[in-house]
Structure formats: C-alpha cells, structure tokens
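Supplementary material to the annual report.
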Amino acid sequence: MSQFSFVEATDWQCAACNQPLEATKVQVTYLKSAFHVELMTCPKCGFTLIPEDLAVGKMLEVEQLLEDK
Amino acid sequence: MNQIQLRELESKCIQEEYPFCSAACPIHVDVRAFMASLAKGDTRGARRVLDRTMPFPEILGRICDQPCRSQCKRVEIDAPLAIGRLEQFCVGATNTVIKLPKLPSKGGKFAILGAGLSGMTAALDLSRKGRPATIFTSSASPGGSLQQLEESILPGKVFAHAQEMLAHYGVEIQTSINMNQENITALVHEYDAVYCDLDDLDQSLLPFAPNTVDAITLATDQAGCFAGGGKTAEGSFSPVYQAEQGRRAALSIERFIQNVSMTAQREKEGACATRMYTSIEGIAPTAEITPGDEPAGYTAEEAKNEAGRCIQCECLECVKQCVYLQEYKEYPKPWIRKIFNSQTIVQGTRAANKMINACSLCGQCSVICPNDFPVAEVCRSSRVDLVETGHMPPSPHEFALEDMEFSLSDYCALVRHQPGTTRSSYVFYPGCQLSGSNPEAVKQTYAFLRDTLGGGVGLLLGCCGIPAHWAGRDQLFAETMEAFTKDVERLGNPTVITACTSCLSVFKEFVPNMNTVSLWNILDKVDLPTQTTKPARALTLHDPCTTREQSELRASVRSLCEKLKIEVVEHDFTGETTDCCGYGGLMQYANRKLGEKAVARKAERSELDGLAYCAMCRDNLAAHGRPVAHLLDYLFATTEDDPLSRTNPGYSRRHENRARLKSDLLANLWQEETIERPAHTAIKIQLNAEVEQLLNNRLILLEDLQKVIHHAENSGSYLLNPNNGHRLAKYRPIRVTYWVKYEPIEEGFLVHNGYSHRMILPEDQK
Ligand code: SF4
Ligand code: SF4
Ligand code: SF4
Ligand SMILES: [Zn+2]
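Predicted assembly:
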C-alpha cells in the first residue's frame, strides 16, 4: 500500500473551505505501521477523503494483514 | 501450550489411525486407498498401492491369507470386503506400476539363510535400504514352501519375476548350497548379520537355540543372528506373516548395525490395534459381490462393484457437523498443530489468528468426538494467550465488547428491588440479548414474576460478561463477574432467575455458590399466565448451544411446550449435540460469513419453522429467513403479530432497545428518570431497509451515524457534492473512523451509506 496512489476525480468538495479536493501525499498509520499514500484532500484544511471502495477493499485488507503480525 | 501438551492433544484425534483393515494387515497395506482406486475403475492405481507396501505383489497379491478381512468394518453392516480376492484380480490384471527407489549403499554385508518368502522379503528390504544382501538356499530356486502351491494358484512365472526384482535391487542368490553345520557357522562369522528363514532351513542345523527367538526383534541368543518365518504362533502357514517377518528382520538388522535401540517404538509393526472410529449409521446393507465365474475370479466390473462397497473408514465425526472445521478444511489433529505453530512464531504472520477467533466455542465437537477432543477449550485458551501477549487483533471482538460495555453502562444497567419493597427473594436477570431483542417480553415476564412469586422480585439489567470470556479477555470478564456478584449481594443474595441460557452457564461455572435458576425452570413450576397463545402448526425446537450441559433446563422447556400445547417435533441435533447459531464464541463478529453458515446449518436441521428460547438464536434464525418464534412470545403474547414473523432487530435496535427498556421501566415502575444520553442521540435519522442491513453487516450502529452527523453539523467539517447536495462526513470516536453519506431532510437526516476503517488519517493522528 505504501507506494499506492488512490487519486481519482471526485465531485466531493470541502464544505467548510468551499474548495475542490486535490491529490496529496499523506501518511496513514495503523498499529505500528505507517504508509505513504496519495489521496484526495482539501488543500486548505487537510480533510482527507477515503472513498467507500478503498475503505472496504484495499484498506481493510491491509488492516487485516497488520492485525495478524 | 507446550510440545508435550500438543502431543497429548494431537493423540486424542484418531483420524490418522489405521483403518480397521490396514491395522489388521501385518504389513499395513493401504487397503482403503486400494479400494478407492478400484472403485473408480483405476486398476493401475490400485496396483500402485500394492507395489508401495507389498514386497512381492505378484506372489502375495495372489495368495495372501487376508487376516484383514475379518476386521473389515463392513462386517458390522453386512459382509466384509473380499480384500484378498480383489488383490488377486488386481495383480492378475496389471504389471508392476512403481518400483520403490534403492538407497545408496551404506555398507556392510548380510546373509539370508533360506529363500522362503520371509527370506526374500528380508533380502529385498535390506538391499532397498542400501544394505547388500546375499541369499543362500539349498534348493535349486527361491520360494521355499510356496513352490509346492499349484500352478493355478501361484504360476511358476511369479518366482522368475521375484528373482528379477531381487536382481534389480542387487540381491545375490546362491542356490543349491550345501547348508551343513560347518557352512552355516562360517556364514554367521563372515557376515555382519544373518537372517535365518525358518521356512527354508533344516531346523536341526540352526546356529542358535531355537526357543530364544524374540517375538519383537527376531533376535536370537547368537548376537547378529536373527530368525523368523515358518509357522505362526497358532501353528499355521500364513504368507503375509512370512512377508511381515522378513520385513521385521530387515528393520532389526538395520537397528543392530546402527547400534540403536532394538525395541523402541515397534508397536505398529505387524498387525496392531487401531483406535480408529467410524460411524456406520445410515449405511444401507448391500450383498457381497462374488465372481460369476468362481475359478476365474472377478471381472473388472465385479471388482469395481465389490470395491465400491468399501466405506472408506475414517472418523471426521466432528468435521461432518461443524461448519467451522469445514471452513478451515481441517480435522483437529493438523488443526491444533497449526495453532501451535502460529502461537510459537516469533516474527511474521500469525497465520492461525483468524482460525482461533472463528470457532463458536460451542463444544459440539467434543460431545461428538470419541475422545472428547477439546477444540473450544484450545481456542479459548489460545485467545487468552493472544490477549496476554498483546497479539490479539483488535477487529474480531471489539464491536461485541463495546456492545457489552454499553449494556453495562448507566444507560442500560439497573439494579432494583421490586417497586415499593426493600428486600428481594428473587431477582430477574433477563440478560443483554433478550433486553435488546424483545424488551416487551422482559417487561411482561417481570410483571408475571412479581405477581406470581412472593417475597419481592428485584430486577437486574446488565450483561453477564460472556463476550469478554469468549474474547479471551479474562481480566475484563473477572471484573464483570465481580461487579455482578456485588450487585446480587447488595440485593441481599436473592435467587437469580436467568432468561438466557448463556448467562446461566456462566453463573454456574464462575459463581457456583450463587443461587441461580433458569426462568424456564421457574415457569414450569408455577401456574402459567392465562393469556397464552400457541402456533397454528407444529414447530421444531432449537436448543441453544449453551444448554449442552443443562439437561434439566431443556426438559423444563419441553414440559412448558407441552403445557402450552405447542406441537414440537424434535430434530436430530438437539440437546447435547445441538448446533450454535453463530453468536457463540463471537463467531459472527470474527467471521460474519461463517456465522451465517452456522445459523443456516442450525435452521436446516429441520424442514419445520422453529421455536427458540434464546434471544440470539431466535434473531439469528430469523435473519436467516426462517420463521421462528421465542417461547416467551407464546407465554405472554408479547406482540399483536404472529411471533413467527418477527424480524431480526439487528445490532442498532438491540442497542437502542436496551437503553429504552431501562428508561421505560424506571419511569413506569419506579417513577425515576434515567440519566440523559449524549446530545448526538437526539439526532433523527432515516434510512431504508437496504442501507440498514448494510450498516448492520458492517457493524455500524445508529449511534455511530448520529455521532458522525452531530460532529459534522456542529463543526461544519464535511464534504459536499454540489450536484445533489449530499454530504459525506467522518468521525473517529475511539478506534474506528466512521463515514456517513447523508442529506438533511425536513425532520433530521436521510442516510444513504456508511462505512468504516481502522487506519488513522493524518487529521486524527496525535
Ligand atoms: S471426532 Fe474429530 S477430533 Fe475426534 S477423533 Fe474424530 S476427527 Fe478427530
Ligand atoms: S470398509 Fe474399506 S476401509 Fe473400512 S475396513 Fe473395510 S476395506 Fe477397510
Ligand atoms: S464451532 Fe463448536 S463444534 Fe465447531 S470446532 Fe468450535 S466448538 Fe467445536
Ligand atoms: Zn477544507
């Protein structure tokens, strides 16, 4: 997951900042591991979008792997 | 678990023991595999099985005296398999399929005196092991007494074939030797070890005292001199015994040369006992197939049919019933080794974690197993081990543990004497699942108990802590038990009446001195309510898995059904062998799909609609789509609708029901107010049935949705889709980030979707 980009065009916009989301390199963590991934976030406040298919797909898979380490 | 415990447990599972036929076979031919091949019409495959074990299939396959046959399991059904005849068919129809490898020479020189079947076998086995062997016989050709058999039984060509085989492995054969005392003594001195084949030696010339042959090692009083073959202890001539003796001698000689123990671990050489267990229930008798043309033996078709009668003896009794063992494609012997390996791993993936957490701990397997293999105990103690070593993954049990925490919180838990009294003879303990599933039943049951039992009937709402016990959280469980015990003490130690069989099983095990009794037991002893109802059709009764050891309780339930005139049709898996509904051991949280398979199995034990007396069983069976009622529904007419059609309330409604039950009871019976729930619970949410089901499967509660929307609407932090006005918000209360897609509507919010993850986003990292 560490090299992955999950960037895709999206209609979602940050309501608080009234901004479209932009591809950004961020770090997500779980248990004792950290991953650098590219996700859509709000350039102003940093709100990170995790789309449903990512949450119940790849992300879940990685979480499960880490849990058994 | 240490190595010794592992071995001990492994040995309880007898699935890998010899089947009855192979155990009785002195050289342990894999008869079961032989039959399986023949039954498929694969005669070469069957020959391969013989080639692997029989020293000389061309000989033994034709004349084996089949001591296995009388031990064949099928004897208990109709007639044993015609094992010897089928071997005759096989060797008659095939040539050698595999030749076992010859190991590189390990040195030494070995003499075989006598060329009967045992001598030939000893020579063959030794040379295969890389131990050069030479056969000496006074006869003109090898075969010993077998040479006297008629051509129709043992054609002469088989001896030529045997000689070729011996030559192939480098055995030297010296025929027409003058075997006098002098020559024999010289051979004994010259060779590193000798084997005397009693079938082909003049008994007066033996180089040792004849009565000194050891039955296990075949050693004699002369060091390095072994002897065997000849007549069996019963005084008969048995070809397969000859082969076994030769094989035993070769093994002894190898041990002798290596100077290792001559006797250790030889119990399974030769015909032996087996602990195999095979159920023959439901196997219809079929007549033995005999050859149409007796002297010619079986035709291919006849052989195939006769071999098809083999029931492929094995145990797997536990696996046949348990969806968990089926899912992981294991029977307990290899299963426990996997757990052991996973537990002892220092680094890397703990491959058995998922397996350890998926068992329902229901104990069905142990009841079914001939040796009571304790799968559930092993799983639970492995979970404790994972918790204690910090390796328990968070996701399998967290939801259930938080649910339990909520049941025990001030929002749901309650301890009271009966309104208007200050002492309790009894206290009603409905348990968290009945309170969540059917709060109306709790209210009515409590009212009935107050009216019926004297001396004050208190009420205790909470959770017995079994989720913590199942999750291996022993400390949390102990704390829960202690708090519960204190509550009961504060009420003056009344008798605790439990509606839930799991609660009762926990109390009986962990607070054995407390007075506890099942609600069913109480109800069976008093006059029943006047307004009872009954179903229009016969139902099958589903015992919960936690009643496995509570026969009295099960009897009370049946007696109640009789009094209610409910027509109950028992199926085969009730009582001690009843199935788990998928909730046990937190199976459905650790592995949702497997939980669904478990309840499907339980439901499908009968064609009939069901009657349950555990709230969790009832709701899981209902979720599976089976009409099913709870016994309390008929006792107290808890609903206007048909109790059989009540749907599964799901996790969210259970959660809310528990809180509402407390506030309703407090308000109506004690005229008290409940503590107020947090502000987010005031948020009104609407969702359609499909979304509700999806969120239930994803273990997302209504309250989680409320938390997210509350957070988003108060902070203004959410995403917006300008095309349709939908909002997407997230919130991480503790360890899970919840996402909700919703839109504001006139009254509250309409939720379109929800999902979650455990990974921590940058904005939530501290
Ligand atoms: S019932 Fe299961 S655990 Fe018991 S011996 Fe048979 S296969 Fe092994
Ligand atoms: S039924 Fe088959 S496996 Fe069982 S004892 Fe007989 S031959 Fe062996
Ligand atoms: S689910 Fe029940 S029957 Fe299956 S292995 Fe676990 S305890 Fe045994
Ligand atoms: Zn923003």
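Residues B 13-15, 315-318, 331-332, 368-371, 373 surround iron/sulfur cluster (ligand 1) (CB under 6 Å).
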